[in-house]
Amino acid sequence: MQYKTHLAVTYAAALPALASTGNLTIGNTVALGIGTLFPDIDHPKSFIGNRTGGISHSIGAVFGHRGLAHSILGVVFFQLISKWVLNYLQLPPEFADWFIVGYIAHLVEDSFSKTGVAWLQPLYSRRIQFGFKKLYYSTGKSSESLILGVAMAALIYQVMQFVL
């Protein structure tokens, strides 16, 4: 899934939770967006990979795309790192929670791709595809464009409801 689709789907799904819990802040919204892009740090040509240079190349070379960064172990590792970084920078700890919500949303979204995600790496490398190989999208194809369009429509509607 391309970065713009990840952002649109994650924001469309999470905006009601942000708004209804009183957490609709710029900081939480930014953390959610960074979280939803972050798992693709293992792909040098991804949106985040293009902006992290050698880090992305190193992670991709060692673990591959949709490797450890696309697993439960990756969620736990980056949750701990995000909490440490936020504490070090003296930023609100709830940013880490919304970062992880975005991170997990990315993995769920990728689980609906044709190839799925190996959630249990490194213990179990079999990929899980949530659509049972019948309901899926392929990156950059019309199926993803449809998902982006629906997510954008939902997001626009929600922004009009919650923000305006």
UniProtKB/TrEMBL annotation:
InterPro entries per UniProt: YdjM-like (IPR007404)
Keyword terms: Signal
Pfam family of this protein, just one? Answer: YdjM
Query: Transmembrane ranges?
Result: none
Signal peptide residues on this chain, from the entry's feature table: 1-19
Q: What is this protein called?
A: Inner membrane protein
What organism, scientifically named, is this protein from?
Answer: Alkalibacterium pelagium
